[in-house]
Amino acid sequence: MVKYGLDYTRCRWILPLLLGIGVIFGIIALSGRGWLESQTLPYVQQASLWQNCRRPQEGGDWNCESLMGYAWGRAAAATYLVGFILLVICFALAIIAFAIDTLRFNFIRGIGGLLFVAAVFSIMGLVIYPVKFSSEIEMTGINMFSWAYGFGWTTAIMEICLGFFFCCLPNYEDQILGNVKPTYFYSSP
Fold first, then answer.
1. DSSP bridge partners of 144
2. Which among 28, 110, 131, 187 has the fewest CB atoms less than 10 Å away?
3. Residue 141 zone, left/alpha/beta (φ > 0; ψ -120 to 50; rest)
4. How far apart are the first and last CA of the chain?
5. Is pLDDT larger for residue 65 or for residue 56?
6. How far is CA 122 from CA 4, 22, 44, 65, 94, in A?
């Protein structure tokens, strides 16, 4: 990407594309019912960020209770949701930043800073949830934090990595814009 510069049409949209993938992973984490699941048969517990469902016996009906009745449930949902909203804002700003012909590198660095703030909020929600869930809700059988919870962590890790990339990109402004003379290592025979 640095070799061809951000004006190279295929490379210019890599960062907004990665942010878009992060947004999709965040949507999966917010809507997925696999934050916590029973690991062995009979499957008796399944939880999302919003509710906890139990089944007394195999083949029975699921009884669900909202986690919004707990203060920690509201805190985990709110902090993760704030992190997700900041990620969506960064995605929109990245599209605007890379759609403009002349890049504003300070603007790009601001997106990186906002991504770090989004990562902090996401990680807070991802840490509050398992700590308080496992200490305040009775769990039967062997349970594991599952796929939707993993998508939440993937979103947080993407926010951190893309934050570093957005913050470091302005350091290579001259190379990206092509303002540096090439150095040739040539020795005459």
1. 37
2. 187
3. left
4. 34
5. 65
6. 34, 12, 28, 23, 19
Pairing of strands 36-38, 143-145: antiparallel
Distance CA 129, CA 73 (A): 7
pTM assigned to the model: 0.83
pLDDT digits (tens, 9 = 90+) for 96-129: 887 776 666 678 889 999 999 999 999 999 999 9
- Side chain identity, residue 143: N
Q: Which of 33, 131, 138, 142 has its CA nearest to residue 73?
A: 131
**At 121, which amino acid appears?**
F
Which residue matches tokens 């025979």? Answer: 189
Report yes or no: 86 and 128 within 8 Å, Cβ to Cβ. Answer: no
